[in-house]
Write a structure and sequence with these properties.
Blueprint: E1 2-4, H1 7-14, E2 21-25, H2 31-43, E3 47-51, H3 71-81, E4 86-88, H4 92-95, H5 108-111, H6 115-118, H7 122-137, E5 141-145, H8 149-161, E6 167-171, H9 191-196, H10 199-212, H11 218-231, E7 235-243, H12 252-256, E8 261-269, E9 272-280
Parallel strand pairs: 1-4, 2-3, 2-5, 3-4, 5-6
Antiparallel strand pairs: 7-8, 8-9
């Protein structure tokens, strides 16, 4: 595996390559990241991964400085798996040699809801760095995880509207045996919090079970889930039932008619904020 730190080195390595598959990450790699890279390997050659903690997507009171940076161990994991040909690991000066005054702003009806409401500017930062990374790598395929469901939709819509020649592939959420979605932030959980953390997914499953049983009262299902988590000590930002196709809240008749839905949640357990989601499709 080649490890490069500058855009010039990256482009030298990829010159003439037409089937590049790309997996952008912020590092602190875990099995879910490695699963994305295995999927990328099935759809392109060579596979490029990036590790870059993007300041633009962190708010002023968020954990940018505390976000785990584990480049040496990340390189060891990638070399052991042997799915990645080039790792692009730039520093901030390389990615942002001057203030990033040109930025991508997702529409408010997608980028300003859910995560966008509770983390203002987040999706602008994500979209800007993804567009910039796509410009550097010029992939034909890029792989993202479904755990960041809204982010996946933002990136897909951005590629469509900008006519970017990049096919976006989605990998299913990778979970521990107890249901907790894998995330770099799980490492911040205290032991007692880690034991409690799967309850977020359990709350999503309860909402899904209600929908599948014919309950079309989304507000009631959401409220019960929030109440149950709050009673267990969670600080809940949202539990929200949405249409898969556009993340708009469904009408009751749409729920009854079997509209493909997704229930999304974000909540804090102690000092750690976790997100998760669960797709719901009636057969």
């Amino acid at each position: 595996m080649k490890v490069v730190h500058t855009i010039e080195e990256l482009r030298d390595q990829l010159r003439g390559q037409l089937r590049v598959a790309f997996v952008p990450t912020m590092g602190n790699l875990h099995p879910a990241h490695l699963a994305l890279m295995k999927l990328a390997r099935q759809h392109g050659d060579p596979v490029v991964a990036s590790i870059f903690v993007n300041r633009l997507q962190f708010g002023p009171n968020e954990d940018f400085d505390q976000y785990p940076r584990t480049l040496a161990s990340d390189i060891e994991k990638l070399e052991r798996e042997r799915d990645v040909y080039v790792l692009f690991a730039p520093n901030e000066r390389e990615m942002y040699p001057e203030p990033q005054n040109f930025q991508v702003q997702p529409p408010s009806d997608l980028g300003g809801i859910l995560e966008g409401e509770f983390r203002p500017g987040f999706f602008g930062g994500v979209s800007t760095v993804v567009l910039k990374l796509f410009s550097c790598v010029q992939p034909s395929v890029a792989v993202f995880g479904k755990k960041d469901y809204q982010q996946l939709m933002v990136v897909r819509n951005m590629c469509r509207q900008f006519q970017l020649p990049v096919k976006i592939l989605a990998h299913e959420t990778v979970r521990d045996a107890d249901g907790l979605a894998l995330s770099s932030r799980n490492g911040f959980l205290q032991p007692s919090e880690r034991a409690e953390a799967p309850q977020l997914y359990a709350a999503l499953q309860t909402v899904a079970a209600g929908v599948l049983a014919g309950n079309a009262d989304a507000a009631s299902l959401e409220g019960q889930a929030v109440q149950a988590l709050t009673a267990r000590g969670w600080d809940v930002d949202y539990v929200s039932l949405r249409r898969q196709r556009d993340l708009i809240a469904p009408a009751s008749q749409e729920i009854l008619d079997g509209e493909p839905l997704v229930v999304l949640a974000a909540a804090k357990l102690g000092a750690t904020r976790l997100i998760d989601n669960l797709e719901i499709c009636k057969k």
